[in-house]
Input
Amino acid sequence: MSYRIGSGVDFHQLAEGRELWIGGVNIPHHKGAVGHSDADVLLHAICDALLGAACLGDIGMHFPDTDAAYKNIDSKILLSKTIELIKKNGYSIINIDTTICLQAPKIRPHVPQMQKTIATIAGITEKDISIKATTTEQMGFVGREEGLIAYATVLLEKV
Ligand SMILES: [Zn+2]
Output
């Protein structure tokens, strides 16, 4: 049995009139994340952490934002495809730990739904998916509500 750790980070701008998708959940807010896909910063960071742990490149390599096939795509599909690839390479997920950096709105009330959504896609339990959130105390682009960041760390085991 061997273990592999991976890390991922993702950034998106926030803009008026966009939907805000985080962790596969639509969060009511006057701003949403800008991107080629649905711009789900948390699912993108998790995809990159999974690919990193398996040394299989990054999300941009597998799902290029120049490809019309991924325009406005639901990032749950990207996560599902990434997990399929991980499994094909003989890996299974032990746990996922994440942090979202966002000034507003409050993320905490949506965390159980995010955990449930990701657990269903990943085939692991909600207790194996940690989702934390922090503001930046009004500092920088996150503090000015111009953008958001997500960090993810995953542990895989090769069976
Ligand atoms: Zn992204």
